[in-house]
UniProtKB/TrEMBL annotation:
Subunit structure comment from the entry: Component of the RNA polymerase III (Pol III) complex consisting of 17 subunits.
Organism lineage: Eukaryota, Viridiplantae, Streptophyta, Embryophyta, Tracheophyta
Species: Rhodamnia argentea
Name of the protein in its database record: DNA-directed RNA polymerase III subunit RPC3
Function per UniProt: DNA-dependent RNA polymerase catalyzes the transcription of DNA into RNA using the four ribonucleoside triphosphates as substrates. Specific core component of RNA polymerase III which synthesizes small RNAs, such as 5S rRNA and tRNAs.
Localization of this protein: Nucleus
One Pfam family hit: RNA_pol_Rpc82
Domain of life: Eukaryota
Similarity comment: family membership: Belongs to the eukaryotic RPC3/POLR3C RNA polymerase subunit family.
Start and end residues of each stretch annotated as Disordered: 1-45, 209-236
Gene: LOC115744094
Keywords: DNA-directed RNA polymerase, Nucleus, Transcription
Domain called RNA polymerase III Rpc82 C -terminal: residue spans: 196-382
Cellular component terms (Gene Ontology): DNA-directed RNA polymerase complex
Length: 539
């Protein structure tokens, strides 16, 4: 990891009157360069890092085999491709490519979409179906144990079993869930139990409807391009810019339909079918969703469901913020932050919401008192904790906190620990000074003797826009190495693992205990490393 000056040495006089405007101009030029490097509309695809791709390919290879992994790697490295182009680049049969794509789509690792190409007759548009690898969903496969742990803490055993089935199969209909649970036996009470279990998972937002199998992606018009330029620096959220964001946004079901259940259950008394839908959805939007399902010929049993990864990332983000505050400040601040996050959870629509609040002091205190750790807190103690958190206070004593700032502090601490271990305490102090200053800092000056005598100042700054992706890529590299080491240890002791338990005695038992210890250490290290990856990539 290298740290270079953010600009070349610049000649200037030592006058303090000209020094401050010079620094401001340099910072403005650097911000402008960073904005120019950001992806622009319509036709760009931001590829993952090199080790990120290798890590994702290893995950697919270990789960579905080398052939599926090669097709996935082709999409990750080349971007969205048609079926014909995948066959051309891979040099394998069309049927093999088709089967690999079906596996990846079933497991939510590839999203198909249709795109319109200009040219030809105005009335006849040329469309093609392209396939895009969803990098995030591939990496999420390593977090399945974390997802199961969350579900097991909140719901019953039946919900955990059904949830594990969704993780295994990627996406399932209600009919397939019932067949999987009872092996095709017609048992009405069992069917109703499966519907009830699925409803619990949906109500908890752990399961959602699958996206559109093939959304249409229209090329951005000139008017849309001008509108994006006008809103580029405004506070209004701009439209997704990359192809991946545009495709996923077009495929996502509308919010009124995303968690809507339409189950036809048969009552034992009169044998009539009754319709059950998810409560809390507006009547008009619910009716629109019902009509949409009827147009598709769906009675609820053919709707595809999958795990709602967004809900889990939402929870992991909150947990990471609370734990960081607990370590950096104290337990009282962590309790206050957790209360704000729990209260504002229903208000948040996206995983990367930057603010929690505004919430009144009474609302926050009511949530604080629900926990054992918060019952000993007084209002004055709560106010002091909110001030310690840096919350913005409103006129009606309402408080709002910027979660983005907490995440940035956690990221700084993570990189600081890496610098300390790799480069020593002196480098750690220098990096910490530069990262906390968040501006250009003068470190030394020199006198140029060639030509006219003048003084040059060296200005330094941590360029997070380039350093953070580098840190994340190294984390992917480390995660890949840990996975490869686990695979190596298991392959080396494959014969030992296949032995019956009663034959594992003496030296064999010691080897088995050693393997179990090594595997536990490697997998726990991988889980901790994955927390850091989420901090830089998902939060």
């Amino acid at each position: 990891m290298s740290f270079r000056p953010s600009c070349d040495p610049l000649a200037s006089s030592s006058s303090s009157n000209t020094w401050s405007p010079l620094v401001q101009r340099l910072e403005q030029e650097q911000e402008q360069r960073q904005r120019q490097q950001q992806p622009r509309g319509g036709g760009t695809m931001v590829p993952p890092s090199q080790y990120g791709i290798k890590y994702a390919v290893h995950i697919i290879s270990s789960h579905f085999g080398d052939l599926v992994a090669k097709v996935c790697e082709c999409l990750l490295r080349r971007g969205p491709l048609t079926h014909r182009n995948i066959v051309r680049f891979m040099e394998i049969s069309a049927s093999q490519v088709k089967n690999c794509l079906l596996v990846l789509i079933q497991q939510n690792c590839v999203q198909a979409f249709s795109v319109e190409h200009p040219g030809g007759d105005e009335d006849e548009s040329r469309r093609s179906t392209e396939y895009m690898a969803v990098f995030d969903n591939i990496i999420h496969r390593m977090r399945f144990p974390k997802f199961v742990a969350v579900v097991s803490q909140e719901l019953d055993k039946e919900c955990v079993e059904l949830f594990q089935g969704l993780l295994q199969h990627g996406r399932l209909t209600l009919e397939k869930m019932i067949d999987r649970a009872k092996s095709g036996q017609e048992d009405c009470p069992a069917q109703d139990a499966t519907r009830e279990t699925l409803s619990k998972l949906i109500n908890a937002r752990f399961v959602e409807r699958c996206p559109d199998p093939e959304p249409h992606l229209s090329p951005p018009s000139e008017e849309e391009g001008r509108a994006r330029k006008r809103t580029k620096f405004s506070k209004v959220a701009a439209e997704p810019q990359t192809i991946e964001e545009r495709v996923l946004a077009a495929a996502a079901p509308m919010e009124a339909k995303r968690f809507l259940t339409i189950f036809h259950t048969t009552t034992e008394e009169d044998g009539q079918k009754t319709e059950c839908s998810f409560p809390g959805v507006g009547e008009k939007r619910k009716c629109d969703a019902l009509e949409s399902d009827k147009e598709l010929g769906s009675d609820g049993s053919q709707v595809l469901w999958r795990v709602n990864v967004q809900e889990f990332m939402h929870r992991f983000r909150h947990k990471a913020c609370v734990e960081n505050v607990r370590e950096r400040l104290d337990g009282g601040a962590a309790v206050a932050l957790n209360a704000m996050l729990e209260t504002s959870r229903s208000m948040e629509k996206k995983v990367k919401t930057d603010n929690a609040g505004p919430l009144t002091i009474n609302t926050i205190y009511e949530e604080v008192m629900k926990g054992e750790a918060g019952r000993a807190m007084t209002l004055d103690h709560l106010r002091a904790s909110l001030v310690m958190l840096g919350c913005e206070r409103g006129t009606d004593e309402s408080y709002q906190i910027d979660l983005k700032n907490i995440i940035e502090l956690a990221q700084n601490e993570e990189v600081e620990s890496v610098v300390l271990k790799r480069y020593g305490r002196e480098a750690y102090r220098i990096f910490r000074l530069l990262s906390k200053a968040n501006r250009l800092i003068e470190t030394d000056k020199k006198v140029v003797v060639t030509g006219p005598r003048q003084t040059q100042f060296l200005l330094w700054k941590v360029n997070k826009s380039t350093l953070w992706p580098h840190v994340l890529d190294e984390m992917y590299h480390a995660a890949l190495n840990l996975n490869l080491r686990v695979a190596y240890e298991l392959e080396k002791e494959n014969e030992l693992l296949n032995l019956p338990i009663e034959k594992r005695s003496g030296p064999l038992e010691k080897r088995y205990n050693r393997l179990r210890t090594v595997r536990l250490l490697l997998e726990s290290s991988l889980m901790k490393l994955d927390d850091a990856i989420m901090l830089f990539h998902d939060f």
